[in-house]
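Good morning C.,

I know you're traveling, so I'll keep this short. The sequence:
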Amino acid sequence: MGRFIARRLILAVPTLLMISFVLFAILALAPGDPLSQFAANPAVPPEVRENIKRSLGLDQPWPIRYVKWVMAMLQGDWGFSFGSRIPVWDLLKLRLPNTLAVVGVAYLVSLIIALPIGIISALRQYSLMDHISTTLAFIGFSLPTFFTGLMMIVIFSVKLGWFPFIYDSTLKVSDLETLGQQLKQSIMPIAVLALFQTATVVRYTRASVLENLPLDYVRTARAKGLAQATVIGRHVVRNSLIPVVTLIALTAPTIFSGAVITEQIFRVPGIGALLINSIQNSDTPVVMAIAFTFSVLVVLFNLVADVVYGVLDPRIRYD
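The tokens, ready to paste straight into the viewer:
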């Protein structure tokens, strides 16, 4: 297993380099000028604009800028934001807690709810509970998050006035009252994201369990006299989770990259909203940092998924 992990990490290096090269090239060749705000300001003379461009390194060809970016990243330097002129890492640290508080909690809630529902729905196929969960799952992943978010704002904020529809990032939790305010403003964005994620995981889990239930090894386990709970828990569920782990591994990096649409709807100042604003302002260092971090997380979580495969299914070996 150790050799397998080492090989995967070594192979990940050229993969990530190629991804970073493509991302940097696209951002460098895309239309847009990070200094457009100065171009529209008559108080900024052209020579000052050229000096700013030179100080940011934008006067150099993009391949040279890419090499400098890679060398700086290897030393832990993420660069400076073109717009705010603060270190990119400090900018991400300001936004990451908001993203984790909404997207991370929604992801955990969806897994806690979806896995049991998917398993029970498969074990009680065509029952009333199965029909209800299947219907809700179809509704959950058929409705786009922007529609669900707007409906919740109209119903629970505008009509009923239960929850605020704008996320207050300046709120500091210091007592029970502020904790309640934090929970109230987080309920709707968490519910929107959890609804979509829960629906997807429920369908995957149900289909996987149904696929394993009629197999020979399950009938053999029952023929040996094993208890139903042992057959389901130790054999059926364990093997059924392999495709579900793949889904979870592919979607887990979104916890750190943020939910772009939901953060825009509820004005959550997270990583997703920062990414959209940076793309609009051609803020290459910030966009590169977020996109490259997402790529690294995808590679790492796929490696974690491969390791979990070996734990769930003893037949899988990486010798």
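Safe travels,
E.
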